[in-house]
């Protein structure tokens, strides 16, 4: 029994306490009005450890009940408001940027990147050793050129076994270790998918040429004989007839590339199934994306008619080059996009987990048939690649002028389907190095261009230090060797490419003693240091990642554009001189720009922090300026035809929020 100073209460049975009993047996808890009528209840005060009945008695009193109800409804209202706010924020938020949008793609040409075992050839373990390089550059996406088992007639693009690693490059275990370590460092690995052809050493080709019933139509075969040595006039990309006679089968097979690379027949459902299985195999391994090669050549017209000659007067027997024909029947055939859509759909199934999106980029040189290129984006309903490689800037060296660069950039921006994501490159293993073809003077401005345009830049290994072609070498494929020389890591033996032997599969560029990663890491004004700062700027500033891109000015020297985001007062003006002479640019006719502009970063560091009047912006040939300015006046609303954005986003500075607008 516990005593209080007012009433006796039996804790074991509250009903025994007369204070809780009504005259007619009902409890005060059941009748709160009773308290008013019976002063005895009013005397019971709340106390610690009171039994349920006392608690109920008090909780029904207005002075407890009313605040409780107010609090309850307040909580309901707050919860509803919070849910509404969350739903609104989610609905208004722009889509999260994907990994392949945030980081540049870095292309590793495997044979030439880093040799771990001293055999003179770059390998998978070599890449693993150099992962810090990507981290140093703040690069997250790495495309590694083919490592599949191959006789290497076309640097690994002639695959003998799509599921095996060539011993020259390592083992499957090396691959798995590399991938695991890349993932643990937050890096993504993109690999080549080479669906158009196999090596002539592939098991399928051997079975096909011997007429195995299952494999006989895996490739494109046609009759040919002494009187008609080729089925038609089609030519290979590498020159001469695209047909080769096979004396085992007694027929000709098609090869759009080397004769050692027979074209697969994608009209055969078994071939389609084989390629899907290969895609699954590498996705299961965990690769983050595919660079799908030669996609425009996946199908050929089944009728095998001659292609029209570019010069109809040319003697048909002298037609030998890919430039001699209009490729009406060997490229961009009906059905091709269905193949890509199917592959994309397979990849989507592996893209569901957060952060595990599998990326697809397609390679198709459609030259200036820009509409054909853009089709590889798919449609808003049916996806294909995330982007087709944009090869237009490869033409930059043809005419170094601001107007020309603007033209090339506009080719993509004006033709890209709405809402899609652009991309830029100036080199790869098939193209001369830009630092040589455009000239070393322009390498910094070119890197600056790539890293400040909207979309994803691709960097071919060595571009970050301004590597040049190594001409005059006499290697296995003379025309492409210059751009494939070993990566220049340091001024040590073999440029740090390997340190165990005197051999490298291609000769080193002799300039490696001055142009190398180590030396440039120590020099704040180097091409490398500038690349790194620009990449950091690009990834940390919303206008570069998400903002509007607007053409502001172009002339014989200068190409100028700006990047701005609605709601954000910070914007960037880019002034790049691609001409041969110094220039002074007058932007006084652009009222949206403040009169005084401060150079945030120049490719010539001595011009950093200079304050310039917008009517006189001086640049040297090959100089680029990043100018940050503050404004509340936007350029894009007044110049809609000069501006592009993939997905509109606005910034609310009061709450530091980005929303769709
Ligand atoms: C595309 C590759 O980039 C190129 O190097 C190769 O020669 C062709 N595919 C043919 O395999």
UniProtKB/TrEMBL annotation:
InterPro entries documented for this protein: GH (IPR017853), GH13_cat_dom (IPR006047), Glyco_hydro_b (IPR013780), O16G_dom_2 (IPR045857)
BP GO terms, sorted: amino acid transport; carbohydrate metabolic process
Membrane-topology annotation of the record: Single-pass type II membrane protein
Transmembrane residue ranges: 70-92
Domain of life, source organism: Eukaryota
SUPFAM superfamilies: (Trans)glycosidases
Domain Glycosyl hydrolase family 13 catalytic span(s) in chain numbering: 107-538
Alphabetical keyword list: Amino-acid transport, Cell membrane, Disulfide bond, Glycoprotein, Membrane, Phosphoprotein, Signal-anchor, Transmembrane, Transmembrane helix, Transport
Gene Ontology CC terms, in alphabetical order: apical plasma membrane
Biased composition annotated in UniProt, kind: Polar residues: 468-488
Complexes and interactors: Disulfide-linked heterodimer composed of the catalytic light subunit SLC7A9 and the heavy subunit SLC3A1. The heterodimer is the minimal functional unit. Assembles in non-covalently linked heterotetramers (dimers of heterodimers) and higher order oligomers; the oligomerization is mediated by SLC3A1 likely to prevent degradation in the endoplasmic reticulum and facilitate heteromer trafficking to the plasma membrane. Disulfide-linked heterodimer composed of the catalytic light subunit SLC7A13 and the heavy subunit SLC3A1.
Protein name according to UniProt: Amino acid transporter heavy chain SLC3A1
Native organism: Gasterosteus aculeatus aculeatus
Taxonomic lineage from the root: Eukaryota, Metazoa, Chordata, Craniata, Vertebrata
């Amino acid at each position: 029994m516990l005593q209080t100073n007012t009433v006796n209460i039996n804790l074991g049975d509250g009903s025994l306490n007369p204070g809780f009993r009504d005259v007619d047996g009902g409890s005060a808890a059941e009748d709160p009005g009773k308290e008013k009528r019976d002063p005895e209840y009013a005397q019971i005060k709340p106390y610690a450890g009171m039994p349920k009945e006392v608690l109920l008695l008090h909780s029904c009193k207005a002075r407890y009940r009313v605040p409780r109800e107010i609090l309850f409804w307040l909580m309901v209202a707050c919860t509803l408001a919070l849910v509404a706010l969350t739903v609104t924020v989610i609905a208004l938020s722009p889509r999260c940027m994907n990994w392949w949008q945030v980081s540049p793609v870095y292309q590793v040409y495997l044979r030439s990147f880093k040799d771990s075992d001293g055999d003179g050839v770059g390998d998978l373990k070599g890449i693993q050793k150099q992962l810090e390089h990507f981290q140093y550059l703040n690069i997250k996406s790495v495309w590694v050129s083919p490592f599949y088992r191959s006789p290497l007639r076309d640097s690994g693009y002639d695959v003998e076994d799509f599921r095996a690693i060539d011993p020259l490059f390592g083992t499957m275990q090396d691959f798995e270790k590399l991938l695991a370590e890349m993932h643990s460092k937050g890096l993504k690995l993109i690999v080549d998918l080479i669906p158009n052809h196999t090596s002539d050493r592939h098991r399928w080709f051997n079975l096909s040429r011997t007429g195995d019933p299952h494999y006989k139509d895996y490739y494109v075969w046609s009759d040919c004989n002494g009187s008609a040595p080729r089925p038609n006039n089609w030519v290979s990309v590498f020159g001469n007839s695209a047909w080769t006679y096979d004396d085992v089968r007694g027929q000709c097979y098609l090869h759009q590339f080397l004769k050692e690379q027979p074209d697969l027949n994608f009209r055969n459902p078994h071939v389609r199934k084989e390629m899907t299985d290969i895609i699954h195999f590498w996705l299961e391994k965990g690769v983050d994306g595919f660079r799908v090669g030669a996609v425009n050549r996946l199908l050929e017209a089944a009728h095998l008619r001659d292609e029209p000659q570019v010069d109809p007067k040319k003697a048909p027997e002298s037609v030998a080059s890919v430039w001699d024909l209009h490729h009406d029947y060997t490229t961009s055939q009906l059905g091709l996009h269905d193949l890509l859509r199917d592959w994309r759909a397979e990849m989507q199934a592996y893209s569901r987990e957060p952060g595990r999106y599998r990326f697809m980029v397609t390679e198709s040189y459609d030259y200036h048939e820009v509409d054909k290129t853009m089709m590889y984006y798919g449609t808003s309903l049916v996806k294909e690649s995330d982007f087709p490689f944009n090869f237009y800037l490869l033409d930059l060296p043809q005419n170094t002028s601001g107007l020309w660069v603007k033209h090339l950039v506009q080719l993509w921006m004006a033709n890209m389907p709405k809402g899609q994501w652009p991309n830029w490159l100036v080199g790869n293993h098939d193209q001369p190095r830009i630092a040589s073809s455009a000239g070393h003077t322009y390498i910094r401005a070119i890197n600056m261009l790539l890293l400040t345009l909207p979309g994803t830049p691709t960097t071919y290994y060595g571009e970050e230090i301004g590597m040049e072609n190594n001409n005059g070498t006499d290697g296995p494929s003379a025309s492409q060797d210059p751009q494939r020389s070993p990566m220049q890591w340091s001024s040590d033996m073999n440029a740090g490419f390997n340190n165990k032997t005197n051999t490298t599969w291609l000769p080193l560029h002799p300039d490696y003693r001055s142009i190398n990663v180590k030396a440039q890491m120590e020099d704040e004004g180097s091409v490398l240091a500038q690349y790194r700062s620009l990449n950091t700027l690009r990834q940390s500033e919303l206008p570069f990642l998400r903002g509007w891109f607007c053409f502001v000015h172009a002339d014989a020297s200068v190409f100028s554009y700006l990047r701005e985001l609605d709601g954000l007062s910070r914007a960037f003006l880019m002034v790049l001189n691609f001409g041969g002479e110094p220039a002074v640019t007058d932007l006084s006719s652009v009222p949206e720009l403040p009169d005084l502009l401060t150079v945030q970063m120049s490719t010539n560091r001595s011009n950093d922090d200079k304050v310039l009047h917008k009517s006189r912006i001086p640049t040297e040939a090959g100089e680029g300026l990043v100018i940050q300015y503050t404004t509340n006046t936007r350029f894009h609303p007044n110049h809609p035809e000069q501006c592009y954005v993939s997905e509109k986003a606005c910034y609310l500075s009061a709450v530091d929020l980005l929303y769709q607008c």
